[in-house]
Each structure stands twice: as structure tokens, then as C-alpha cells.
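Re: the multi-chain job from yesterday

Posting the exact lines I submitted so nobody has to dig through the queue logs.
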Amino acid sequence: MTKADIIESVYEQIGFSKREAADVVETVFETMKSTLANGEKIKVSGFGNFVVRSKRARVGRNPQTGDVITISERRVLTFKPSQVLKDALNDNQSDA
Amino acid sequence: MTKSELAQLLADSGCCVTRRHADRVVSTIFNSMGQALVDGDRIEIRGFGSFEVRSRPARKGRNPRTGQSVDISERKVPHFRAGKEIRKLINDAAGS
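And the result, C-alpha cells for all chains:
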């Protein structure tokens, strides 16, 4: 699935034009990006949470050369899927 | 930020939606993404990231309260990998 497929779903289910559906889907992802860039987390009930976590600087190695290098302090984006989504993925098994 | 706050921002953006439509748009997006994962489909949103379903093998676990051994069946979990663009956005913001 790509953004085009998501736009298609919005187009079919909301009754927007293709153009409007494309704009609105684009805006949703851009809004999510800038929110996360500000360090704010996003909670999507039924889907999962997107959280920005801070990592301290640490010592790493170049696996190719074995050189010791410092990995700088950084922020990373993690996704924690909701229980609802995890259950949906495993429905076949839990029902069996 | 929650799903409804995201919908509010979308409506405020004047992008093309009323508040009521905005809720439906946001729900439609995440529902169609959830459904794609249930179908075993991979999702790729350029600049944001990709989602895929990974399998975890069956394993023996323990009930931490009773110490009893339990069988945990094979299961599927969603996995998210942040896109290049968002990783950069998140880190550039941290540096400032």
C-alpha cells in the first residue's frame, strides 16, 4: 500500500474529488511529521502511538573497519502498535 | 496529540474539510492502513516511513505470577521503520 491507495480509500469513502482526497491525505502526513519534529507524540487510538525518544551519545564501531567512533546524541521515532491492531493481526489464531 | 486533535488541526488548516469531515478522513486513513496490515500488505509512505507485518515464532513463556510454563503461539506484529526525511526532521529540530 502506498499513499496513492490511501488517497483512493478517502476518495471512495468520503466523497471528495481525487484532488481533495490527495490534498487532505498529504496534509495529514505533513501535520504528523511537523508534530513529531517538535518532539510531540501522536496517539492514534485503535492503531498505535508514535513517540520521539532521545538516545544518549554512545560509543560504536564501524563494523567494516573495527574503528571506534562516537555515535552522537540523537532522537529517534518509534511506533508502538495498539493492542487493537495487534489483536486484529492475530485474529485467526486467537479464534482458533 | 490524539486522533481528534489531528482532525482539529486538519480542519483548521483550511485544506478542504469541515470538522466533521476531518474526523472521518483521519479515521478512514488509519482504518485503511490497519486493514492493509491485516491483509499482510506492506505500507510505504514516502518521507514518513513504512509498516510491515513480521512473524514471531511460537515460544515457551511463563506466567510471572505463578511461575507456570505456558505455550505462546506464533504471532504477527506490526513493525514501523521511520523514513529518511522524518528522521532528519526529528534530529535537526533536536540540534537547535
